[in-house]
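Forwarding these from the shared drive since the link keeps breaking.
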Amino acid sequence: MKKIFNFTICMIALGMISCTSNEQKANKLIKQYMFESLYDFKSYEPTKTSIDTLRADIYLNEEALEYAEKGIEYASRIEDLNEEVENNKRDMEFAASMNRHFSSSYGKFQYNEAKEKYHKSQTAFNYALREVLVCMYNIIFIKEEIDQNPAILSGWKVNHKYRCNTRGGDISLGEMIFIMDDEFQEILTTYDVDDMPYAGYVEFIKKTLTETDKEALISKIEELESNGIQ
């Protein structure tokens, strides 16, 4: 019984040494990264490092992040495109009204020109909208695949919190996610939790997953595609 107890204690001790060793290896890589990246490295002070098994994660999935980037890009155009549609619609309606009261070949030309501009802007708006919706659908699809097949990946996910001085001399708190290889030999990918563009991608994905009805999304995409938007 005593031998079993001693063996158990030894295994726990080895596990603690291994964890400490991993954290030391991770912090060594992080320190080098911060040395090369921070404006005022001398003020850098790590506050917390946590190491976790690298699992399939929608917020670390490169394909999902690419869809978020594309979705944000097209979403940023929608407001201006919608304003352009409304302006062109008013111009078309005004040209139609003038042509009814003062019918002429020039009046018809103005109306046709305004009508063409309106249809072009409407098509551009619908295309941008479809692209946003398709990106949202693909993100939902990726999340469903991850939930159905929760895979453990090769490598480590390291969350690192720290404080340092900004260019203005103010103390800033930061948080980074580091993806490291399974031997802690190199940093494969980094994500700045608080800064753009990653923070924007995360917000887009979160809203897509929490505020979007999948069936309504599919219905709207099909409606746009039935009107010739591809």
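-- next protein --
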Amino acid sequence: MHKGFGFLNRRFILPELRSAVRAVQADLVFLQEVQGDHSGHALRQSEWPAVPQYEFLADTMWPQFAYGRNAVYPHGHHGNALLSKYPIVHYRNRDVSIEGPERRGMLHCTLAVPGFGDVHAVCVHLGLLEDHRRRQIDMLCDMVNDEVPPDTPLVVAGDFNDWRCKASDQMARCAGLHEVFQMVYGQAARTFPARMPWLRLDRIYVRGAGAHAPMVLPRHPWSHLSDHAPLAAEIDL
């Protein structure tokens, strides 16, 4: 989300982002760098919404949403968010920050899918340092193994910052999670930078579920709405 701003924070594009996200018509939307509140931007930007960004995006299309604050500062806070067409019966944000200024989190939601039952969804944004990511994935695996029943479908998605492509082996080994692009195409999708994707930073992992038709969403309009190319997939329960 880049907190609702375009490249170099020069232009406020949240209304355009909302239109683009709504056009995908996804049942679940995993978002990172969502601005929960910012008193300065609210004064300076005429289009700044009266509600938090995740609620502005959800509007009438996603009746359920959850937000986890990762970074808190004097003028506001930002973090991860999940928008859902299905009831969110429980959610918890887990702080997985390591030492240093980076604040990172994992938003864990339990959804009640009508006619099916519980589905777990985890929205993640991992650190820039490889050692931090390795330790954060260990935390993710511990959480999955402790809190998600082995026969319950699980989707984990977000920005893994895993430019060396080491996360998938670790996640398969410690939690039985498999990345949907790797399942279908043999390798994760290139997502960064969005205008000319080269690095495979963003992922969708599943356990206890299938997936087909994973795709990187088209460059237009996304390449000027985010520095990461967004991903989509159909998940089979």
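The chain has a mean pLDDT of 96. The helical segments are 14-24, 39-44, 53-58, 130-147, 167-175, 180-185, 219-222.

- D.
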